[in-house]
Every structure is written in C-alpha cells, then in structure tokens.
Amino acid sequence: MYSLKELTLLDENGIRSDGRGINDLRSIKITVGVVKNADGSAFIEFGKNKIIVAVYGPREVHPKHMALPDRCVLRCRYHMSPFSTDTRKNPAPSRREVEISKVMRESLEPSLILSDYPRAVIDVFVEVLQADGGSRCAGINAASVALADAGINMRDLVSACAAGRIADNIVLDVNDLEDKEGDADMPVAYMPNLEQVTLLQLDGKLTTTQFNECLNKAITGCKAVYEIQKDALMKKYFGNEMELKEEA
Amino acid sequence: MQEIKRRYVIPGDKIIEGNYKPLMNVVKSGNYLISTRVGIAEAGKDGVKVIPLSGVYIPRVNDLVIGKVIDRSSLSWDVDINACFLAHLPAQDVFGRDFSPAKDDMGRQLGIGDLIIARIVSFDRTRDPMLTVQDKDLGKIPYGEFIKISPTRVPRLIGKRGSMIQTIEQATQTRVIIGQNGIVVVTGRDPEGLSLAAKAIRLVEEESHTTNLTQRVKTLLNVQDPEDQEQSEAVEASSSSASGGGIQEPEPPQASAESTPQTTSSQPQPEPPQASAESTPQTTSSQPQPEPPQASAESTPQTTSSQPQPEPPQASAESSQTTSNSVKTSSSTKEKHKIENSEKSSNSNSNDDQKEKKQE
Prior knowledge:
The structure holds 2 protein chains of 2 kinds. Chain A is an alpha+beta fold.
C-alpha cells in the first residue's frame, strides 16, 4: 500500500502524479479587473484552482461600531462554491473557511498601509470556483493583485506558494492529492521586495533541515509567482509596453 | 541630484535609491523609495511621486466635487461625494447665518437626489468632509448627462492647462463640469454632441496612461489640428466680416452658450444683470420650456433669438441649460479657459446685441 502511494505521488525519475518535477509550479494565469462593479478584482487559475477575488473599498464601515479611529478595517471572506469540489460543498461558511479567511486577512494586512484610511473598511471577497489544493495560496495571490487594482496603498505585493514533503522529498507547490496523501504541507506567503514572510503554516512533520529546505523552496516559488502577478498588473494598466514613452 | 526617467510601477517597486523626499504614493524603506500604487513614477528635485492609475477618491480640502444629496437632518444635508465618507453641507451655508430649522424649509433649497457642485472646506482623519456652496459657480446642478469616471483620470481629462476638456467642449459644443471626485456632468443642446462628449470622456478614462491621447481624442471628435483651425478661422473671420455672418460657423452654439453670462456682466448694456433676468419671463412665456423651478438662465432668450440655431424648437430651452451650467465650472483651469473663450466670443456677442436692438 505504501509503495503504491509512493509510486503514485513521486516516481523513481522524480516525476510527480501530475507530471511535474519536484521544483515545478503548476501553470498560473492571472487576469486583472474581471469584476466591473468592484473597485479591484482578479481571476487566478493556479493549476486546476479557479478563484475570483473582488475588492471593495476603502468604503464606509457598516456596522459603524466596527470602525477604527486610526486605521482601516480589513475584512476578508474566503468561500468555496458548492460546485468547487467533487462532492457538493455546503455553501454555509465552514470552520475551515472561517479559519482560511482569518489567515488570508493576516497575510495581506502587513502589505497594506491601513493607517492611510482611518474609519473606513476594505472588503476582500475570495470565491473559489474550482478547488485543487493550495487554494489559500492562490487566493492570497489573486487578492493581493486585486488590492493593487483597487488602488489601495501597499508596501509590496504578497505572493504565496506552498511546499511540502512527499516520500522524503521536498517538493514545490503541493496539489490536492499530494496535500492529502503527502507527509507535510507548508503554505507560505511572502513579500518579495521587502523579503518578509507574512504567512507560514505547516501541516505535518519536518526535521529542521527539511523545514529550512521547504521554506526556501516555498520562497523561491513565491518569487516566481510574483513575476506572474507583476506581469498581470502591468498588462492591465500599461498593455504590452513595459517602458514609458514620453509624449511629445 | 539624479533625475530619473518616468516609468511604470506597481506596489513594492523600488523607484530610486538615495536621500529623496517621498511626495505622493511613495514610502521609504531603508535607502530606497518604494511605490505604493500602480502608476507612473516621477522623480525630480522636489522629491519622488507616483501618479496613480487606480483608486477611489480620498477627499482633500479645497477640492471641487460633485455630490448627490442623499439625506438631510434638521441642520445639514448629507452628500454622497463618491468617497468613503459622507460629506455634510450645513444648512447655514445655504440659508445664511440666520437659518432657523423651525422657520426655514430646507427642502425648498435642496431635495434628496439633487446634484450639487461644492467645495470641501474641511476634512481630516477624524472628521467627515464639510462642504460649502458659498462661492462663485457653486450650487445645484439642474440638469445634465451624469458620467462617473475613475477619480485618478480627472487630471488627464482636464489636460494640461485644460487643453483636453477644452478640445472636447469645443468639438462637441457642450459644457463639461468635472468634480475632483470623478463625477462629470455634461450639458449641451445637441444630443449627438452629448453622446460624442461622453464617448470622448470614456476614451480618456480607458486610455489615460497612453501616449498621444489628445491626438486620438481629436481624431474621435474630428477636430482639425490647431494650425489648420487657425487658418480656417482666419478665412471665416474674413468672410463673415464681408458678409455679416457665415453659414458654417465653427462654434456658434458654443459661443452662444458661453457668451450669455459674459454678455450680462462684461458688455456695456443699458440693463443691469437683474434686468436681463427680468426679461426672461417675457420670452419664456411665449415658448414651451421644460424648465426646472429655478430658471437661472438669465439672458437665454436673447441669445436664442439672436444666434443662428440649427434646431429652433429646442433651442431656447436647451441653450438655457447650457447657460445656467456654464456658470458652474469645476476647476480654475476651466475658468481660465472660459475667459479665453469669452474673449473669443466677444465679437459675436456685440453682433448679437446689435441684432437684438434691431429686433426690439
């Protein structure tokens, strides 16, 4: 049974169940500005994950008593659609969704300059249309791009990527099967320009060496994701021109 | 100090290294200046700034904004100014110091749903914005085409010294009132002109960051280059002086719209401005006008009767729209350009006056 699992997750050539190598990311595509009614939005395809994020704000806080006098309130809602998984997901917020909403909010908060908008609120809605493991990382990536699209003052973008352990190998960007059958899963969110980690979770057991390797690998993944986020934003706002041409 | 080229940035991008002053949408991190918004970074002797390309409106003191009255209390109106805070317009500002909530009927001045152009007099981190309409060109906007654009596109829509908005206004024969909060109201007599102006404004909004935008707007509006225009104007001027008014005027309705308030104020007329207001009902009574209660168009009929109008039935009512709104210009640059226009149109005004006198 164990050997079968090992064979399925990682073969002797270092090829994973979905055909990737141990250092490969899934294909990532980000589109910015997909929700017209929102102040900022993004759609991400992270492998088989499909997530749409809409950002509203800064806007008036309702209920008013939630407002903070010195800074903005960040509200985050992670939600999985009933059709996002193979068996129907109850649309009511589950314990897992409430927790992921919290960790997403905490991972995005350090990148935002919330003191610029006192007595206001920023709402981030993360809707998972199709889930395939690593949806919180994909959600953070899209949310960060959507926040930039909404024109909220940010110190840096937040990029997220997971790393994990499968059959004593540290692999990058764990998918759903690897998450369930693997030995460890470590989602990391990172601000690439400031070189600061904003989220680090670990599900499973790792030795110190494995932990360091896993963290470094996840950060490498985050940096790769950052380039895709940057390209998506640049494409939305500046088309294909990366350099500004001075007007005569 | 090292000058850098303007370049596109996203949040977190390092703009420049060194001891520069962060001006706008820039933070200092270590020895670097970092952009906090998607936009165009500029570094000069004064400091480093990023011109943002997205974002909601954050009120600033002295901004001219267009807002919608959404509620009223016994002492003030609540105005939605397209920002994260509701603005307040005190009733005393409209009624004067002797305002009494028991005596004065606030609904008579401003109702819920009314659009106003106002100036922000106070706003800080702890208080909601406070508005005033106690200034020239401020107050209720009776009618017009309502367009909402991103507040970050407003400077581009106005253009350098009002060039862009001037181009749109002249080509479409409309009057465009712009609020710093991204709300634009377009008024004019010609429905085609209105839709063309709206299209041009949308184009500016969508392609605000691109180069050669003014040229593209001119192409959309079928505007000639300034040199050609000057030549054609010179030709027309010579022909009109010979024949006493050409058939094809490049901007007759514009001139009429702009000329009206200035006619009353600047031209040496026997009647004072109030007198011209008195003259309005005489003419308006003879013409069916879909006029709002506050018919603020003072000398409209004069203009209507004197100008060569392409659409006579609508003309008086719609020119009055333009007149009343032309008073309420949103920015100082626009005021400046209005003055320029008034100078342009002063010739046509004097002709108009002569014609009116003859008719009388």
